[in-house]
Amino acid sequence: MLRLLRSEKERGSSKYFKNLLDKLNREIMKENVLVMCLVLLLAINVNVAFAQMHGATVNATMEMEILGEETNVTVPGVPREETRRGAEMEVEITPRVQIYISTCEAALQERNVPTDVAEKACKFAVGVQKQVQTLGERLAKCIAETYLANPNATYGELKQQCIQKIIEVLPVPKCPIVPLPHCLEGYPRPLMDDKGCVVSYICERIPALDLRMCVEKEIAAGTEIAEAMKRCAEEIRRMVRERVRETAAPLPPADMLEVYLRCIDLPEDAREEALELADEISRLTVEHREAVSSIASTCATQLRNLTSEDELARIGEECSQRIREVNREFKEKMKELEERIVEIYETYKSMLNVTCVNEILSARNVTIEMKEKVEEVLSNQSLEIEEKQMLIRAKLSEVLENLRERARKLPDFGNLTLREGIRELMTERRELKNEILGILKSDKPMLREVMKDSVVKGEIVNTLVENPEDRELLVEAIRDREAKIELIKHARTRLELKRQLLAQETVREILPTVLRQKLEKINVTDLDVEEIGNRTVVRAEVIETGRLFFIIPVKVPKVVKFIEEEIIAEQRPWWAFLVVS
User: Fold this and answer.
1) What's the CA gap between 414 and 406, in Å, rounded?
2) Whole-number Å distance between alpha carbons of 538 and 555
3) Dihedral sign, CA of 79, 85, 90, 91?
4) Contact 329, 205 (CB under 8 A)
5) Is the pLDDT reported for residue 167 higher than 80?
6) Which of 66, 158, 163, 434 has its CA 20 to 30 A from that of 144?
7) HSE, side-chain direction, 13 A CA sphere, residue 178
8) What's the 3-state SS for 144-182?
9) How far apart are alpha carbons 18 and 183 in whole angstroms?
């Protein structure tokens, strides 16, 4: 395309310039090039052509710079500021739009947003500017999106969330979603690119690795079905293991392997191992997200008071380097698990439910759908800021309702798709997390269902650590054993979280029934967890009122250790037997 433009440009005649337009139209159809990019290139060529007609000397070398999701074209001889001004002022600012911008700036400045940042953010919020070319503009666009989703957030909260989002680095790229084919012959085998993303599938049948064929032969030879399955699975898995190690081929991403595991109809002996692997992947993923989030949060706190873009970029890169090291360790831990999952997949792929996989992958598209809706709202200049905020909430409710409706129509694996979609939204569109949680709290069964996903559960726990005053969400979270244990651990250093956990409404959900029935006579003063053998127990320090010798009012300190309803141990002073409750 660039060679075509250069050749036509160098000739400089109006006849060739007319031909250029015709060829550009043909190239658009043939190469499917982005229309905005071509229009911008065409505009540059018009300037160059006119400059040549008037005898000006122009260096026709062009550069295309890719910045995230944006494309910027730079032409030597044309000031960069002029090019950027054209990119920034994508639409005319009418008096009505200027009122929207001024209203938005005033609202942001009330939250102590600096004037220059408010000005940039409001151009994105109103829809005057769409492209991002600098770190400051990227931050401003994020602040605009986050403000629309969370209108009551302070500038410190907006900036910290956005810096944290910018400096977080994923251990693997965000891969495109590729549905599995329904193979008439053979079974789907994923093909990966050099980034480790699945780009396509081929239907492949290798007789030596075909479980069905092997089992049929064993049965024909007189072997029992269960024994035939076991023998064939062991032999095929051994061959798969050797094949994987010899070829050293890239493995599919861990999140894809986890989907495969959950959608294969495995025999009992293999199902237990598969579920253990899936749980281990979820555990490592949650630990990794928490580690990355912790680094990013700490760095964002350091960066939130900086105003220099150079200083932001320098410290941000240092933080990103720390996160990349965490990512490297995570990938090393995952490699062994991934190899084991590939063995299971290759062995039992004839039992893979392709519809299940594709429904789960389709549920992941909610982030793309929501991003498109947010961009659509941002670019709409006919709406006021308050209208945009309401519309984003409405769009989110619509997306969640679609997820819920799809789950109802898929009784076998609908809940898997529901959890997958909520997980994607909460981790990829974090500025919408509070709105998502608000919708989930209004539908308790849905909230309890999505909390079965370890990543969603981790996001909810992290939200409560930062905002323990959300009593409604806290009560729902502690009904889940894992979330309850994590929250009690965090409460060791978070005094407000501990105070909320010890409140009677909340602690009632933590205690076993035998203590819950005595809540009017006992006062829980502390909660903690400890390990007894290989079991994690909750430890409650309790003060119980009673009468010594039926006469003297006393308070008896107790330490009760329990797992759900089971009392493991109870410690009390020696004289407690003399006290009557």
Assistant:
1) 7
2) 22
3) negative
4) no
5) no
6) 66
7) 19
8) HHHHHHCCCCCHHHHHHHHHHHHHCCCCCCCCCCCCCCC
9) 49
H or E element that contains 455: helix 454-466
3-state secondary structure of 132: coil
Neighbours of 466 (CB within 10 A): 12
Residue among 227, 168, 176 at smallest CA distance from 197: 176
Tokens of 6: 């250069």
Q: Say whether 94 sits in a helix, a strand or coil.
A: coil
Higher pLDDT, 173 or 297: 297
The sign of the dihedral angle between the CA atoms of 164, 169, 170, 176 is positive
Q: Tell me the C-alpha distance between 15 and 285, whole Å.
A: 61
Can you read off the two tokens belonging to residue 415? 């809940």
Contact 124, 378 (CB under 8 A): yes
Residue 324: strand, helix, or coil: helix
Quickly tell me which residue has 């492949």 as its tokens: 204
CA of 231: how far to CAs of 32, 218, 225, 282, 565, in Å?
Answer: 52, 9, 10, 30, 43
287 Cβ neighbours under 8 A, 6+ residues apart: none
Q: How far is it, in rounded angstroms, from Cα 296 to Cα 284?
A: 18
Report yes or no: 173 and 196 within 8 Å, Cβ to Cβ: yes
Share of the chain above pLDDT 90, in %: 10
Residues in contact with 246: Cβ distance below 8 Å, sequence separation at least 6, in sequence order: none
Q: How far apart are CA 346 and CA 188, in angstroms?
A: 10
Dig out the tokens for 400 from the structure: 């969640």
What CA–CA distance (Å, rounded) separates 473 from 460? 8
How many helices (H) and strands (E) the chain has is answered by: 25, 9
Place of tokens 């889940």: 480
What lies within 8 Å, CB to CB, of 202 at 6+ separation is: 188, 189, 191
| Secondary structure of 42-91 as H, E, C letters | HHHHHHHHHHHHCCCCCCCCCEEEEECCEEEEECCCCCHHHHHHHHHCCC
Tokens for 315, please give them. Answer: 């410290």
pLDDT, one tens digit per residue, over 449-468 is 999 888 889 889 988 998 89
Helix (H) or strand (E) holding 419, with range, is: helix 414-428
Amino acid at 107: A
N- to C-terminal Cα separation, the chain = 88
With beta carbons less than 8 A apart as the criterion, state whether 542 and 522 touch: yes
The CB-based long-range contact list for 193-201 (8 Å cut-off, 24+ gap) reads 194/250, 196/172, 196/250, 196/251, 196/252, 196/253, 197/172, 197/173, 197/253, 198/252, 198/253, 198/256
Q: Could you read off the pLDDT of 125-153 as tens digits, one per residue?
A: 888 887 877 777 888 888 888 888 878 78
Classify the phi-psi angles of 533: left when phi > 0, otherwise alpha if psi is within -120 to 50, otherwise beta: left
The angle formed by the CA atoms of residues 406, 374 and 200, to the nearest 5 degrees, is 55
Residue 273: both structure tokens together: 């191992």
The number of beta carbons lying within 10 Å of the beta carbon of residue 384 is: 14
Question: Which amino acid is it at 565?
Answer: E
Handedness of CA 194, 210, 212, 238 (dihedral sign): negative
Residues 147, 152, 157, 161, CA torsion sign:
negative
What DSSP state is assigned to residue 264? B
